[in-house]
Amino acid sequence: MQNPAPRPALSNWLIVWLITLPFAGAAQTAQEDQGNQPAAESPVAAKLPKIRVAAPCDTYQYEGDIIDRVSNHLQKALCHTALWLDGITGRDGNILEARRTHGYLELTHLQSDYFGNATRIKLKVKTELPVLKRRLSAFAGLGDDEEIIKGREDNNFAQRNQFRNLQSDAKWLAGLGYSFPSSRFYRADFRVGIRGLSNPKLFVQNRYSLLAHSSDADVLSLRETLFWTNQEGLGATTDIDWTHSMSKLVLFRWNSYGTISEKADGLDWRSAMISYFNLQKGRGIAGELFVRGETEHEVPIREAGGNAFLRLPVSYDRLFLKLGAGYSWPRSLQSEPREGSLNLSAELELPFGF
After folding, report:
1. Which of 24, 53, 83, 195 stands the most exposed, by the fewest C-beta atoms within 10 Å?
2. For the chain, how far is it from start to end, CA to CA, in angstroms?
3. C-alpha distances in angstroms, 7 versus 108, 124, 166?
């Protein structure tokens, strides 16, 4: 059994808070300065009702409880950042495009008999830049970036693979992306970025997505991700995803992927069968059976098991609670017995933006 992973330092919370504080403070100071400036008014103008002029990134969408205010605070801070990035490209900031900045903030607690316990913070942000016909974008995040670099961030179901990396620290990741001309059946994009502040990892990624088949009930998609890092060399991830709609409320999905790289032990692969049940009003239940392994590892089948997840809206559509429970049989060394492990998780997700 592996040693429990240490809990993240309080600095992770402070970093996320400090990132948004300067932008919100600057916007508030600017508004206060405008309000303090004297203005000469005519007798007619003095009788007219005062009209508040909104700041460029003030959307006034969420003015309810504390959850809505936090979401609006994040959105405005990132909107100001997008305007700043737009400014460096040589043109005036586009307010409408800056407001399209979107992402989510997650707080997750994981508890596993085998992998240990940990509390994780995950932040993911993406904004479109108006240059090059809006094909250029910027992205940033905090969390387990290995799945992003290797092109598996959309393949993982819920939080299952997070248990594998409990003993690795969350790190910052940022970069630029470019979307090539695409169609309904084919998409391609290119990304370059850096991970980590100490011992940084540079990465380059090229992704190709193909919609191989589409009908009223079935969708088959293929994706190939080529990547390079200065620490792991070249690599590639192949993904196959088949989705079948059994009814308006029930969905079945089969997903498999495999990753190879210069420093990996053969093919790192995972395959899962997943069922989704829509309970409506933002609620849902999902379950999966999965198996994963590495072809050249001393234990080719690393883990097999199942998971169930319940998703509930906490505050309108602005905050979601996801509870998970599963049981699996992991194994890392040939010498250790394969014993069962109970895995529990609880996650709060706060999406923001458009």
Report:
1. 53
2. 43
3. 12, 21, 9
Question: Out of 25-39, 79-93, 125-139, which region has the weakest mean confidence (pLDDT)?
Answer: 25-39
Q: How far apart are CA 291 and CA 257, in angstroms?
A: 11
Distance CA 224, CA 236 (A): 7
Buried b (16+ CB within 10 A) or exposed e, 121-134: bbbbbbbbbbeeee
Give the Cα separation of 102 and 303 in Å (integer): 35
Which tokens go with 9?
Answer: 């330092």
Residue length of the chain? 354
- Do 226 and 241 touch, CB atoms closer than 8 A? no
| pLDDT tens figures, 262-299 | 888 789 999 999 999 999 888 999 999 999 999 998 99
Residue 178 in contact with residue 136, Cβ under 8 Å? yes
Phi, psi of 263 (to 5 degrees): -110, 10
* Residue 256 CA: distances (Å) to CA of 88, 303, 315: 41, 15, 34
CB 268 within 8 A of CB 300: no
Q: Give the Cα separation of 222 and 241 in Å (integer).
A: 6
Q: What confidence tier does 342 reach under pLDDT thresholds 50, 70, 90?
A: very high
Other CB atoms within 10 A of residue 292 CB: 20
* Residue bearing tokens 């695409």: 182
- Strands 218-229 vs 201-214: parallel, antiparallel or unpaired: antiparallel
DSSP, res 250: E
H/E run at residue 35 = helix 11-36
Name the burial class of residue 252, with classes exposed (0-12), middle (13-18) and buried (19+) by CB atoms within 10 angstroms of its CB: middle
What values do phi and psi take at 9, rounded to 5?
-70, 155
* Dist. CA 225–CA 227, nearest whole Å: 6
Instruction: State the number of CA atoms in the 13 A half-sphere of 134 facing the CB.
Output: 9
What whole-number distance in Å separates Cα of residue 329 and Cα of residue 112? 12
Residue 133 Ramachandran class (φ > 0 left, ψ -120 to 50 alpha, else beta): left
21 contacts: CB under 8 Å, gap ≥ 6 = none
CB 352 within 8 A of CB 71: yes
Instruction: Find out whether 194 and 182 touch, Cβ atoms under 8 Å.
Output: no
